[in-house]
Amino acid sequence: MKNEHISYWSQSAEVIKVAPLDKSIQTEILVIGAGMAGILNAYELNRRGHKVTVVDAHELAQLTSAHTTAKLTLQHFTPYQMLLKNIGEAGAKMYHESQLDGIEIYRQLIEKYNIQCDYELMSNYIVSNGDKEKFIEDEYKAHQTIGIHSELHKGDQGLPFPTSIGLEIKEQAQFNPVKFMTQMIEICIEEGVTFYQSTPVKYIEGNIAYTDQHEITFDHVVMASQYPVQTDGERRYALQAERAYIITASGYDTFKYGMFQYMDDPMMSIRHFHTQNGEALILAGGNHLTGAANDPKASYEALENQARKYFNAKDITGRWSAQDLNTPDTVPYIGKYYKRDNVWVISGFNKFGMLFSAVSSHIISDLLEGKDNKYEAILDPERDHGLKANIMSKANKSVQLVKGEILSLNEFETVNGKTKDAVIYNDNGSLKGVINTTASREVVPFCTYCDSLLKYNNAEESWDCPSDGSRFDQFGEVLHGPAVEKLK
Question: Can you tell me which residues the record assigns to a coiled coil (predicted)?
C-alpha cells in the first residue's frame, strides 16, 4: 500500500518546512507544539499583540492533529450522561457551551481568511442497531437536561447496514485538518509568529526551556505538546495514552451524508472525505491503551473487514493511527500549571481535540492577560477529582510491576537466529530489543522517560511504553513523548 501509515491529510497538503532552532533566544511567549492547539494559540496570542515563538519536536502540523478523523462535533466519546455524573449539570452545560464556541471559532477563521480546507456543515449521529438503544435514549435525555439541540430518530438511519435508532445533532462540521493548519501557519508567519521544527524541549526550569543545545528564555510558556513538558523537576499530570486506528476505502456502498459513530460492537467512527478521485470513506476504531495490545496489527485488519462487511468496500486505500491522551474525569486540562503564574497547560483531549484546541486559544489568552474566562473552572488542570489520585496510584504500581519483571532476566532467554517480528532477549545479563527488519537496530528496550519495559507494536513497527505512552521507532528515535531522549 503506497504511503502506508501516512495519513491522507498529510499527503493532501504541503506543510511549510522551517529550520530547527540554531541558537539561544528570548521571546515573550513560547508555545511548545505546532499541532492544532499550538497553532491556534499562537495565532490568538499574536492577534492580541504578543510576540510568539513556536517550537515543535517534529515537523509542523503533524502527529495527532494530522491523524485525526477531523470531526468538528460537540458529541464526543465522553457522553453527556457521563459528564452530568462527573462534573454536574452546571459543568456539563459549560462543557457543551465551550464546544459551540469551538465550532464558531473555526467558522469565523475559515470565513475571515477564506481557508480552503474542505470544510462542510453536516449532521453528526450516534447510531445503534439495538445493543446501545438505551444508551442513546439516555444520552438524548442528558441532551434535554443540558439544553443541547438534538433529535432522536427511531428506525433505519440511512447506513448500508441495519440500524434501529440514531441521535442527530445538526450544523456540525468536518474538514481537512492539515489543509487548515497549513494555511493558519502561513497566516501566523505573515503576522510575525516565528516557528522552529525539529526542536524538542527537554525540560523547563524557571523561565528557561532547554533543548539539546540551546536555551529559550520566555515570559510565558504554553505547553501544547500533547504531553506536558517536565517543569521545575516535576512530572505532574495523570494522563493515559490510547491508540486508535484509521483506514480509508473506496468503491463502497453509498450512505446518507453525515458523520456517524456506530455504538454497537464493533464501534466505528464513520465519515466521508474528498480526494482528487472523488469521495472516499474513513473508518476509525480498534482503540487500545498504548503498549497494552498483544497484536495491534489486528486493529487494522478488523477495520478492513468491517469496511468490506458493512460497506461492501472494494479497495482499502490507506491506513494510519493516532495517539490520544485521556484524563481521569474525561475533561481536558486547559489552564495554569501548578505553582506557576506564567506556565500554561493544554492536554488530555480524550480523543476530541479539534474543538478544544480552538477553545483553548481563547482560554489561555484570557488567563495569560489576567482576564476571567468562564471555562477556567471546569478545565482547570489542578481541579480536584477523585479519580486522579487513584489513576496516578495505579500508574505508579504499574511502573513498579514492570520494573520488577525486568529484574527477572532469567525469564528472557538468549535468542539466536531471531524469527519473530521483534524480540526482547537476554544478552549476557542485559536486555536487548530488536525489530526484525534489515533497517532496524538493536536497542535497550527501556523507556527513556520512566524506565518501563517497552512493548513491540507490530502495526507501526515501533516500541511503545505501557506506562507513559512514549513511542520509539525501529531505530530508537522518539515518535511520541513524553520521552525526549532516544533509546540507547
Answer: none
